[in-house]
Write a structure and sequence with these properties.
alpha/beta; six-stranded mixed β-sheet; 24 helices; about 45% helix
């Protein structure tokens, strides 16, 4: 290889409304797009050690001379290769976008790489960078994400290794690896399953922290490996890193102040070695959550009485609810945080896409003004861009993303291990963890209280009972003084009223807080109470998605529960899931997804008036008949008393009691029927057969929402049918395809 010339871009040079291009050796208008490009050039030269004479900028790689078909950067392995016009090494495409990079949005970069025979290309924007390899023996569109691009002095062997390092995070493989780590700890340290899991959770958190630090340096070493661990000068290097990690997240109170990694150094080193092939720092999708849940389900099956929602179900439910910016969401049984994470990600994507649309609209307007000088145009664009970036800076209090992370995501779990895992999981996926707490989801604590949420999404624990001995304890609802002041400041009287209500129930059964239990002295299923709790948490007009066992829908003894729901909310959709959906999580129950929209104030008034009118009409229908039959039986009872005919009196009294009870039941049924006729609305019903997961937990075809694994013969997915239904219910009401 020819000796490399060390001409580098040492700094970003800005003069007024101009920015200097070291590659083109000239000053350019300082637009946001140009700034992103020159900042990435600095990374290429400073961190990857490429020299200026290895790079071309704004180069036409199509041979057509089009100003619209130019690569931002073309990089050769050496300056001599560039001079000799050999095939380039790397193509770089830069944008000022904020959106999550997806391959289909950067097809131009792939096309340039294919045309110029470059093996690597990079997609870079304001928020992230991704690296790709081009499979030249396959059709355009077939590219694969890899971990990084080579540094300038990489050997052929290092390049070959990097080209083969696909950035594919295999959920099942990683979950199996976590289970292997779990067994190592149990066997070596003799810890119980829960204690062993806690140690793995700490190491995973350290791994994320260390790899994020390594990522910011963009060095060759970006994995938390045994070599990185051994560079720590300490008696227990893993615990030293854990204390550093804990300090970095001290305000989140995920771990106790005196918490340590309770493993022998050799055991900790072995766990790091097993995990070092996976980089956890910058995975944008919720695949770590899937791995966590696979691992947790296997580790704690039957021990903590809960199971986890398959990610395909989470994805479907969130899209059915369709969360929007500014809406406040709660999961009162959050588990590992799957619903909250996905809501956060989807709303974040919407906010970033909206910010990009706003900027592009402004740019189009500015570029249409032909009388503007290039520098003046650049100044206007940069000012607008900076203004928009401030509105989406997550670290900026009051910004759109700050509000999403700190004011819109709330969850709680009664299991402290799950609550902690949920917070950790959310930190790994971008934030929103500040609203996640460890406490009983039935109780008003930490900003979670009635009529507060636009959206409730949950998969509550099934089958367990809330017993009369399950009482509200003062310790269950106590929050520290600082948070108490904050909640009062933020939520005012509604919070104080909610707290007063739960404080009045101290030492009383939890079920006493609810209307559905038939008696405070009897057990009631947790899923029944969660239905009421979720409805209570919703604001008028709020939306809800909940996983429930099918017995709730068809068990005659639970008709009162169904009526309770009908009296408070529109049933928007019911989607029946196949029996095997939750089998791999350790649950045999057949479940359905229920989607509701709580009545607004006006809708509730209309419902109550309609119901009251129906009751009055049915009451009037039977008033004479009941009065006549009652008088006859009462007269008979009176005569039996006069004749001292005890047996006849008892018979007649029983007949009267039975008759009145029968008529009350008939009136209730007919009133409800009349109500349904007059307060009628369509309900979307769907029977799903393939939902993306098999009974063994393997990936399967999925008919719930648009994806790459649709079953054969599926015309439209359930989500697409539902959206059509919302636009025109009458058209699809009798459609066999959507039933």
């Amino acid at each position: 290889m020819a000796k490399k010339s060390y001409v580098k871009a040492n700094e970003i040079q800005i003069k007024g409304n101009q920015i200097f291009s070291p590659v083109r050796q000239k000053w350019l208008p300082l637009t946001p797009e140009e700034r992103v490009r020159q900042e990435y050039l600095l990374i290429l030269t400073d961190e990857y050690d490429y020299s200026i004479d290895q790079i071309s900028e704004e180069m036409d790689v199509t041979g057509r001379g089009s100003a619209q078909a130019r690569a931002d950067f073309v990089i050769w392995r050496s300056a001599l290769d560039k001079t000799d016009q050999k095939s380039p090494f790397i193509i770089v495409e830069c944008k000022s976008d904020n959106v999550t990079i997806k391959a289909q949005d950067y097809t131009q970069g792939e096309n340039y790489a294919r045309l110029s025979d470059a093996p690597f290309f990079v997609t870079h924007n304001s928020r992230e960078t991704k690296y790709w390899r081009v499979k030249k023996d396959l059709m355009p569109g077939y590219i694969e994400e890899i971990e990084n691009i080579p540094h300038a002095d990489a050997t052929d062997k290092e390049i070959e290794d990097l080209f083969s390092k696909l950035r594919v995070f295999k959920e099942k493989e990683f979950a199996d690896l976590l289970h292997q780590c779990h067994n190592v700890i149990r066997n070596r340290e003799k810890k119980d399953p829960a204690a062993a899991f806690d140690e793995i959770a700490k190491i995973l958190f350290v791994k994320v922290y260390v790899e994020r630090k390594l990522l910011t340096r963009r060095g060759r070493e970006n994995l938390f490996s045994v070599d990185v661990l051994k560079k720590q000068i300490a008696e227990n290097p893993l615990d030293t890193l854990f204390q550093e990690t804990k300090k970095s997240f001290s305000t989140d109170k995920i771990f106790d102040e005196d918490e340590r990694i309770n493993l022998k150094p050799a055991t900790g080193e072995e766990i790091v070695r097993k995990l070092e092939k996976y980089n956890l720092s910058d995975t944008s999708e919720d695949i770590k959550g899937v791995a966590f849940e696979r691992f947790l389900g296997r580790t704690f099956r039957g021990e903590i009485g809960q199971f986890f929602t398959p990610r395909t179900i989470v994805e479907f439910m969130v899209h059915m609810i369709d969360p929007q910016e500014g809406e406040v969401v709660c999961d009162p049984a959050s588990g590992s945080g799957g619903f909250l994470i996905r809501v956060f990600e989807i709303v974040r994507e919407k906010i970033l896409a909206d910010a990009d649309r706003e900027y592009k609209k402004y740019r189009k307007k500015v570029e249409s003004k032909r009388n503007l000088a290039d520098t003046e145009r650049a100044k206007l664009l940069q000012e607008k861009y900076d203004e928009i970036q401030q509105t989406i800076a997550q670290s900026q209090e009051g910004s759109r993303l700050w509000n999403l992370a700190n004011r819109c995501i709330f969850g709680t779990d009664a299991n402290d291990r799950m609550a902690r895992t949920s917070k950790m999981n959310m930190i790994m996926h971008g934030d929103g963890h500040g609203g996640v707490h460890h406490h009983d989801g039935f109780l008003n604590v930490n900003g979670i209280f009635e009529k507060r949420f636009d959206i409730v999404l949950t998969n509550p624990p099934f089958g367990a009972n809330v017993e009369p001995t399950d009482k509200v304890l003062e310790s269950d609802i106590t929050v520290d003084a600082a948070n108490e002041r904050r909640y009062v400041r933020e939520f005012g009287e509604s919070y104080q009223y909610a707290q007063a209500r739960v404080k009045a129930a101290i030492n009383k059964p939890i079920s006493s807080l609810f209307a559905l239990p038939k008696s405070e002295k009897s057990n009631i299923k947790t899923e029944i109470l969660f239905i009421e709790r979720c409805l209570d948490l919703l604001k008028p007009g709020g939306r809800m998605g909940i996983v429930l066992p099918e017995g709730v829908y068809n068990n005659p003894s639970l008709a009162y529960v169904r009526q309770f729901v009908e009296d408070r909310a529109f049933i928007k959709a019911v989607v029946s899931l196949p029996q095997e959906t939750f089998v791999s999580s350790g649950a045999m129950v057949k479940a359905s997804l229920l989607f509701l929209q709580k009545y607004s104030g006006e809708e509730k008034d209309l419902f109550d008036l309609t119901y009251a009118t129906a009751k009055a009409e049915i009451e009037a229908k039977y008033v004479d008949e009941i009065a006549k039959r009652t008088r006859r039986l009462e007269n008979g009872i009176k005569k039996a008393i006069e004749n001292k005919d005890v047996d006849n009196r008892k018979t007649l009294q029983k007949e009267l009691t039975d008759y009145l009870k029968q008529m009350e039941g008939r009136k209730a049924v007919e009133s409800r029927q009349l109500l349904k006729e007059r307060f009628d609305y369509p309900i979307f019903m769907y029977e799903a057969e393939k939902v993306g997961i098999s009974a063994t937990g393997e990936e399967d075809s999925n008919e719930l929402y648009p994806n790459e694994n649709l079953p054969k013969g599926i015309e439209k997915t359930c989500l697409e049918w539902y959206r059509e239904f919302l636009l025109n219910p009458d058209k699809l009401l009798n459609s066999e395809s959507a039933a």
